[in-house]
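ok new one. same drill as before - structure tokens go in, u give me an amino acid for every spot. 213 of them this time. try not to just spam alanines like last time pls lmao
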């Protein structure tokens, strides 16, 4: 059965993780998010060493058991098997979606960037499970030169994509804006700062899910 994307899933950007007490922080974070009902987490680390990624991912995999949480890695399709992860998100500077699918097989979750103002030409033909769209609003956790598309941009991309494509809206989405983005046609919201830069990310995630479900 295909994985059903949740209305909200967290993106854990490495910039949010403290260097002091890193292991304990990740262990507690992973366990609390699992208990809060997170079923999908993306880990994003654009600049970390292989050793840092290995340490972080091994902790998260133990704290977030595979039967409860799907763990997706940003960029690095070559590390999915090594760390027993569930999928990868690839963009233009990474391996292609086709290469990722060939490397990982039919059962892993694979996503790619679908577009901002318009869909990327031919992107709906890629062998992926979801397409991220945005930036919906200005973001503080990922560098991008693309202009925010807003709620109307999400609606426009849904019209282009048709009803069956899984569109994940990303960037700058706050609690107050979330419902409007879903109503515009997003299947799921990928959220980083608005969840992780709060005193209790697990409780904040539950607040989002309760309001949007």
């Amino acid at each position: 059965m295909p994985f059903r994307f949740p209305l909200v899933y967290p993106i854990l950007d490495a910039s949010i993780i403290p260097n002091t007490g890193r292991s304990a922080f990740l262990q507690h974070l992973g366990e609390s998010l699992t208990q809060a009902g997170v079923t999908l987490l993306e880990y994003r680390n654009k600049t970390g060493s292989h050793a840092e990624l290995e340490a972080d991912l091994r902790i998260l995999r133990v704290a977030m058991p595979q039967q409860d949480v799907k763990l997706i890695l940003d960029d690095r399709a070559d590390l999915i098997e090594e760390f027993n992860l569930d999928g990868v998100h690839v963009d233009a500077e990474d391996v292609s979606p086709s290469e990722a699918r060939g490397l990982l097989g039919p059962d892993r979750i694979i996503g790619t960037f679908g577009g901002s103002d318009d869909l990327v030409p031919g992107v709906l033909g890629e062998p992926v499970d979801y397409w991220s769209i945005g930036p919906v609003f200005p973001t503080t956790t990922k560098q991008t030169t693309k202009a925010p598309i807003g709620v109307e941009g999400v609606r426009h991309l849904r019209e282009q994509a048709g009803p069956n494509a899984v569109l994940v809206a990303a960037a700058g989405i706050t609690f107050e804006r979330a419902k409007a983005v879903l109503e515009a046609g997003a299947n799921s919201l990928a959220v980083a700062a608005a969840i992780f830069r709060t005193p209790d990310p697990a409780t904040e995630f539950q607040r989002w899910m309760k309001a949007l479900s």
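The longest strand covers residues 109-115. and btw The chain has one domain: 8-212.
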